[in-house]
Fold this sequence. Notes:
Elements: H1 15-29, H2 44-76, H3 90-121, E1 132-133, E2 136-137, H4 140-148
Antiparallel strand pairs: 1-2
Helix pairs in contact: 3-4
Amino acid sequence: MPRLMPRMKNRTLTESELDALLDALYRMRDGDFTVRLSPRGATRFSEVARVLNEVFDQCEQLSNEVQRVSETVSTDGRLSERVSISPARGSWGQSVRALNQMLDEVSEPVTAVARILDSVANGDLSQRVDLASRHGELHGDLLRLASAKSAPKASSAAAPTSKASPASGKTSPTTSTPWPTTSPTR
């Protein structure tokens, strides 16, 4: 970002100004983004204080936004929630885009599997999960999750004959074995 103020007259910072600056930097290093410096007048220290306060604002805003999205996903179960900060310039914007892309890549297969489970619960065994994500093939845990409900159907010639339970007439959609007809004992 361009300078908002012309370069100030070069003067030596006082010990108290250096102490305040160092204290603020230590607190920032330790994750305290609430600290602010007090700019006084039109000095070099005031310019540094204003710019550092803007950095603290960005850090605090990003931290608060990530916490907000985490709480929304955790408590409300809304996998569509995304991080948004303004202005998101440079690496700030890259971080926001990376977080949101990660959320997209995780939520899409989870949402697809939920859709498949709903279909299975309604007796529709024809639904499958697309094993390609928006950004390429799924890998690792996401591929395992999506594949669990998208395994290719066994060919009808090789598939065992489904045996219905005499009491319920229903069979397991995954094993073609009868569903249990009695409640489990406690």
